[in-house]
Amino acid sequence: xxxxxxxxxxxxxxxxxxxxxxxxxxxxxxxxxxxxxxxxxxxxxxxxxxxxxxxxxxxxxxxxxxxxxxxxxxxxxxxxxxxxxxxxxxxxxxxxxxxxxxxxxxxxxxxxxxxxxxxxxxxxxxxxxxxxxxxxxxxxxxxxxxxxxxxxxxxxxxxxxxxxxxxxxxxxxxxxxxxxxxx
Length: 183
Prior knowledge:
Radius of gyration: 25 Å
Shape: globular
Structural class: mainly alpha
Largest sheet: none
């Protein structure tokens, strides 16, 4: 057997394979710069939105209860509810990120980046509905109107915020960043 011919053939095959791989890499789609970037499913977006909604709902209800208990006016009660909605929304995300062993500073940065837009949209929709719903701002905790308006406003906030989260996750932002730390 002619070893020189065999070595030349093997080298040529190797060079062809490298060229093909290189050419394929040049024509391959660009990689997304952020983890989790790409197509985001509606289920993933809904799960992320539900996560934010949970924190927002806890903060909203607690703010309303505290404001009502202290006899505060509508504006002060709404401000407290919004602050607590952000606090609890971030807290739920922080809990998961910190459990993965990330330091507090990094966890806070990730939570702020992941949740701020989602919570802001949710709060804008939620509080906007409550503000324009006739009588909802003055309804007491013991009245059905309070709970009905709150439930509908949170449901509407979920519907509006889910596409926002889908868009963010598809670009490697929002909860896509959080999921990077859960792996």
